[in-house]
Write a sequence for this structure.
């Protein structure tokens, strides 16, 4: 027996398909949308349609954009010889917020995951190798997450790029600012030791 009218049930089901959204949150979002004035609800629906229709991947770095080449790749003031490889478009935003990185990016749109049936052909590794082969790349920074999939992806890419004779680096991982040593796990502490640098 359906608890709500079929259109409401369908709306809840669609919200529940979003990552990190459980049934209760889906219901809350659905009722929020239903409470919106008609114009606001239509603007929301139009924003989804427009984003889906007008957003695609940059021909060069695979980041999301509304043009053939994204603004970062088009920016000639950036270091064109350094590529930071990230798993998802949201990782680019995280780096850009630091205002420290001035190179280019390559977005994989995922990581290798044998358990999830995600292999090298399912993410944008081929495009990265082609870029390195065709451009004057001097360094590739592997900035995938320090989890099993991220590590496996970084190792795989590292082996693929080795023949190009370029510098291949991995982000240093360690103790977060404000963290306490007694609460840090052994793997993180080991990484922090390995990634230590001279002051």
């Amino acid at each position: 027996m359906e608890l709500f009218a079929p259109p409401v049930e369908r709306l809840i089901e669609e919200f529940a398909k979003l990552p990190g959204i459980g049934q209760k949150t889906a219901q809350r979002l659905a009722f929020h949308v239903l409470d919106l004035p008609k114009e606001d609800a239509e603007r929301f629906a139009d924003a989804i349609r427009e984003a889906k229709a007008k957003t695609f991947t940059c021909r060069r770095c695979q980041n999301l954009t509304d043009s053939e080449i994204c603004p970062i790749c088009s920016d000639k003031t950036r270091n064109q010889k350094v590529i930071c490889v990230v798993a998802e478009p949201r990782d680019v935003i995280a780096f850009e917020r630091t205002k420290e990185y001035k190179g280019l990016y390559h977005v994989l749109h995922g990581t290798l995951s044998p358990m999830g049936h995600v292999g090298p052909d399912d993410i944008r590794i081929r495009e990265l190798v082609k870029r390195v082969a065709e451009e004057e790349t001097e360094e590739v920074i592997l900035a995938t997450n320090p989890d099993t999939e991220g590590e496996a992806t970084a190792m795989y890419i590292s082996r693929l790029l080795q023949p190009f004779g370029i510098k291949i680096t991995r982000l240093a991982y360690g103790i977060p600012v404000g963290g306490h040593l007694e609460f840090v796990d052994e793997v993180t502490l080991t990484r922090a030791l390995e990634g230590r640098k001279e002051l």
Q: What stands out?
A: Residues 6-54 form a domain with the Helicase, Ruva Protein; domain 3 fold (CATH 1.10.8.420). Residues 107 and 129 are 12 Å apart (CA to CA). Strands lie at 56-57, 64-65, 82-86, 104-107, 139-142, 167-170. The chain has two domains: 6-54, 64-194.
